């Protein structure tokens, strides 16, 4: 390399991808098998039914956006968002 040539700096940009995990229940993908009629087995993933939803928390007077599963939505309808968030913080699923 020529001593006066500019040095090329190559940096790789890392992209962080959010994991597909429910923030309130901790549900995530499981691994299992597709089983054909001939009983051939191939690996597959069973993904959690996740949705991004906004919730209003009246105690804190603010809106929060969470990635939640369908079962977490049922818990929110049953117990209320404040109680479910409190349980998730106790279990360590939610750090916000």
The total of beta strands comes to 4
The general outline is flat
Oligomer: single chain
Write out the strand line-up for the largest beta sheet, numbering strands in chain order.
Answer: 1-2
Radius of gyration: 22 Å
Largest sheet: 2 strands, antiparallel
> How many angstroms separate the termini?
51 Å
Number of helices: 2
Strand content: 25-35%
Sequence stretches where pLDDT stays below 50 over 5 or more residues: none
Mean pLDDT: 88
**Structural class, please?**
alpha+beta
Q: Helical proportion?
A: 10-25%
Give helix and strand order, one letter per element, not per position: EEEEHH
Pfam families: Ribosomal_L28
Family: Belongs to the bacterial ribosomal protein bL28 family.
GO cellular component, one term: ribosome
GO molecular function: structural constituent of ribosome
Question: What does this protein look like?
Answer:
It is built from 2 helices and 4 strands, in the order E-E-E-E-H-H. With 96 residues, the chain is an alpha+beta fold. Strands 1-2 form a two-stranded antiparallel sheet. Helix 1 (70-79) packs across helix 2 (81-91). The longest helix has 11 residues, at 81-91. The chain starts with 29 loop residues before the first strand and ends in a 5-residue tail after the last helix. The mean pLDDT is 88.
